[in-house]
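Quick one, T. Sequence first:
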Amino acid sequence: MPSCAACANTLEEEQVAVHEGGCYCGNIAVRVTSEQTPEGWTPRACDCDFCTNHGAAWVSHPDATLEIEVQNEAAINLFEQGSMNARFWLCQRCGVLTCVTCDVDDERRAAVNVRALAKYKDFPAPTTVSPKTLSGDEKKARWADVWMRGVTVKDCWDVGL
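Structure tokens:
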């Protein structure tokens, strides 16, 4: 019979949820690790023209981690718009908007487009938000509170985000 410590470790491992996805062609892969199941997230559909045109609905949690893996860095577009604080990760091959990153207090933060996740249908319907009404500083303060903190880019050059 396993010890109590072994049972606790198994229970702890079972509580970690991994949400994987990426762009359609596989050039950009995303992997979110969190204690949140899909039902615990609130996708946010930004009402700006850019996000609306890309059908983006963002999910994030400050305790979640995100790994971004790029196969061919020459085939990605880090697009800045609006306040020029955030960088949107677009695949140049298939056009899918996968995630958005920003540096806040020297720490990379991110949100993921729920529609780029493999099991996006398991997440609740998006709630409309309007960050375009916020100043650049107000946006960064909000992102500091709600975006993922543990963000890494794998197999790619440091893009200086």
